[in-house]
Amino acid sequence: SSSGAIVSNITHPDLGITQIQFANGVYLNLKPTDFKVNEVQAALSFGAGRMSQPISQPGLAELSEAVVNASGLGALDKEALSTALAGTNTEVDFRVAEDRFVFEGYTVSKHVERLFQLLYAHLEDPAFRTEAFALSTKRLQQQFKSYSGSVEGHLRLHGFRFLAGGDSRIGFPHPSEWQVLTREHVVDWIGRALEHAPLELAVVGDFDPEEIVALAARYFGTLKPRPDWQHPLPTPGPRFPYSQTREFEVATKIPKGLVAVAYATDDFWDIHRTRRLAVLADVLSDRLRIGIRDEKGASYSPFAFSRASRAYTGYGFLQTYIQVAPKSTAMIVQAVKGIVADMAAQGITDEELRRAVDPILTGLKDLRRSNAYWLDSVMACSSRHPQQLEWSRTILDDYAAVTSADLMALVQTYLKNDQAAVMTFFPAADQH
Fold it and tell me: Within 13 Å and on the Cβ side, how many CA atoms surround 315?
């Protein structure tokens, strides 16, 4: 039979990456490295992850991730599995990412077959144990409680969903939402993807490539083909709340507030733009630190970050994050908008640009010597997104080439104060 047969084998010598497709449709991407002796990392990706969570079932992603991780395997519960793996330094974690499900694996070089067995077992012998479900709901409840007691937690509970126009796939769910979910909801959502979604395996680290290809052929190349199957995706996607303001009262005894001013940007896939938005966020962080912390003495470590979505077309935002005294929230919102207006009026100096870009370039040199970078940013899901390989080739030069004019074009396009979404979080009055 043609089981385990290879139908395509492409090497990228400059990247040290090989991409293989088996006759049954399974993809394998591998990159042997010497970054860390005796370390092997893997990612088995499939399905559409959190973006495929039904709109009427918020919390299903958090719950499913917890249930799968607490369940072990059909033949071995979590404890028996730990015992079986004792001494092998091999582990697998399930994660629901924004745009895919993934089993993330780790092992040492001599136990690489054990890792393949484990990944295979998660596909072919999954467990969704009743007691794991009970444990997971308890853990979600605890997590919710800990988020509820702080202004930062409220950003996760309410802020991110507000910035997504109420999209129920975004932000940490409220117990009233996930308490209606059952074990069957998890089995249906994850089980169908495990059974039908096309598979892509990426492996990086200290291994013999021939051994990896042989193991992949044996464990995954022999699975029955999975024709192009798609999770039904809820539409439309998140919508940014242009020009809207929300205030959130937090039941906490800690006397601090949080201000977040956010500007709509765009999705991830124009990488040239995505990188420049990241640099712009760093320049803005620098301005906030000087303009708010140092001059007003009002805040501890204000910063800005850019979040560009891989899952939702056109969706992204650049957000500021500033912890303040509760009575200063209104003043700080005005200060942020003032700093952004100044930037638009005066431009960005070359020195500011260097202060933002130089640490990024230094960090990238280290990053490119890590297995995690090649696994997560370059190889995982590269059959869906072949451009990820090209991105790894251009990343250093592209960041080094960022100009003040590039950033100013983004300021003019996106940082419009009259369209900003503003969130303030402060302690409930009776708690002061």
Answer: 20
Phi, psi of 229 (to 5 degrees): -105, 135
3-state secondary structure of 13: coil
Q: Tell me the pTM.
A: 0.95
State the SS3 of 86-155.
CCCCCEEEEEECCCCEEEEEEECHHHHHHHHHHHHHHHHCECCCHHHHHHHHHHHHHHHHHHHCCHHHHH
What does the DSSP 8-state code read for residue 377?
Answer: I
Torsions phi, psi for 142 (to 5 deg): -65, -40
Chain-centroid distance of CA 327 in Å reads 34
Q: Who has greater pLDDT, 46 or 234?
A: 46
With beta carbons less than 8 A apart as the criterion, state whether 150 and 254 touch.
Answer: yes
Residue 87 CB coordination number (10 Å):
7
Q: pLDDT (tens digit, 9 = 90+) per residue, 134-185?
A: 999 999 999 999 999 999 999 999 999 999 999 999 999 999 999 999 999 9
Question: Strand pairing partners for 6?
Answer: 22
Question: Residue 185 and residue 191: Cα distance in Å, rounded?
Answer: 10
Phi-psi region of 143 (alpha: psi -120 to 50; beta: other; left: phi over 0): alpha
Residue 243 region by backbone torsions, left for phi larger than 0, else alpha for psi between -120 and 50, else beta? left
- 235 band by pLDDT with thresholds 50, 70 and 90: confident
Instruction: Tell me which residue has tokens 């983004």.
Output: 410
Whether the CA torsion 419, 425, 428, 432 is positive or negative: it is: negative
pLDDT in tens, 240-260: 999 999 999 999 988 889 999
| Residue that the structure tokens 């708690």 belong to | 431
Place of tokens 């997971």: 136
Q: What's at 285, amino acid-wise?
A: S
Q: Residue ranges of the alpha helices (H) in 206-328?
A: 209-219, 271-288, 295-296
Distance CA 342, CA 417 (A): 11
Residue pair 251/431 in contact (Cβ under 8 Å)? The answer is: yes
Residue 18 DSSP SS3: strand
| 343/404 Cα distance (integer angstroms) | 11
CB atoms within 10 A of CB 389: 18
CA diameter of the chain: 73
Residue 432 has pLDDT above 50, yes or no: no
- Give the residue carrying structure tokens 């994660």: 95
55: nearest Cα among 145, 204, 164, 139: 164
Residue with the two structure tokens 């040492």: 108
